[in-house]
Amino acid sequence: MSITKQFPSVLVFDSGIGGLSVYNEIYNKIPNVHYIYAFDNEMFPYGDKSSELLINRVNSVIEAVTQFYSIDLAVIACNTASTICLPSLRSKFSFPIIGVVPAIKPASLLTKNKCIGLLATKATIKRTYIIDLIRQFATHCTVQLLGLSELALIAENKLQGGTVDMQQLKELMQPWLELQTIPDTIVLGCTHYPFIKKELQMIFPQATFIDSGNAIATRVYNLLNDKYVLNQKPLSASENIVLSTNYNQSVEKLIKKLSDYNLNKYHTIKVSDV
């Protein structure tokens, strides 16, 4: 049974809670719509999963959400899923679907020493899509690629109230610290990473960090603004919802912080696949 509403519903999806970095950017730009933040913590992290598994899984999760909620636009706030799943999702669902693209183009315009670092998951780094982005926008630069699965876990732990082990983080960054030319512009190619930007800046104090959150928010605004009056206040308070595929202690901690993100309710969704 679908929920009836008088203003658009935007689905923001990620494997974990890192996509809240993108959701925050969108919410700050467009507060007066209905938001559903869904995350697949049952299969988190996505960065070490096969393409075939992820295509099936992401399609199944989005399908499960649409069984209960009418979606007007979806944001795949996960770089790994975006580089793999967008064609299949767009062929299956009729509403607009926006993916997250690593900010290679703006980074290429910002860098002064012509050395860019792309920090992402192992799955994102391996995609030919990334090579195409570099060829299209950054041929005049050296682009250092560093694929790590651990950073998403570190960010999730921080979001749940844990502390970041700076020694561990520095060890993970060692391949770049040993370079003759260290990147002066670092692309955060996973939506989890903005949550540990402060810690990364301590390791690379001279670097500029860039992510896709603002660009995604602008894209969402433009698409919705063509069909809805976005500055019109809703008739009743919006009940923004969080959905996850598994209920556990981490979700319990998140529920206590929902109001910090202008999210009001939580439900678990069951996904039948894989």
- How many helices? 12
Q: List the domain count as a whole number.
A: 2
- Mean residue pLDDT: 90
- Quick one: biggest sheet? 6 strands, parallel
Spatial extent as radius of gyration: 18 Å
Question: Could you give the order of the helices and strands?
Answer: EHEHEHEHEHHEHHHEHEHEHE
Residues in helix, % = 40-55%
- From the spread of the alpha carbons, the general shape counts as globular
Tell how many strands the DSSP assignment holds.
Answer: 10
Relative strand content: 15-25%
- CATH architecture descriptor text of the largest domain: 3-Layer(aba) Sandwich
Detail the poorly predicted runs: 1-5
| CATH domain topology of the largest domain | Rossmann fold
CATH class of the largest domain: Alpha Beta
Alpha carbon gap, first and last residue: 25 Å
Indicate the structural class. alpha/beta
Strand line-up of the largest beta sheet: 4-3-1-2-9-10
What does this structure look like?
By secondary structure, the protein is an alpha/beta fold. The chain folds into two domains: 147 residues, 3-Layer(aba) Sandwich (Rossmann fold); 108 residues, Rossmann fold. It is 40% helix and 17% strand. It contains twelve helices and ten strands. β3, α3 and β4 form a beta-alpha-beta unit. α1 crosses α11 and α2 packs across α3. The protein is globular, with a radius of gyration of 18 Å. The chain starts with 8 loop residues before the first strand and ends in a 6-residue tail after the last strand. The relative contact order is 0.20.
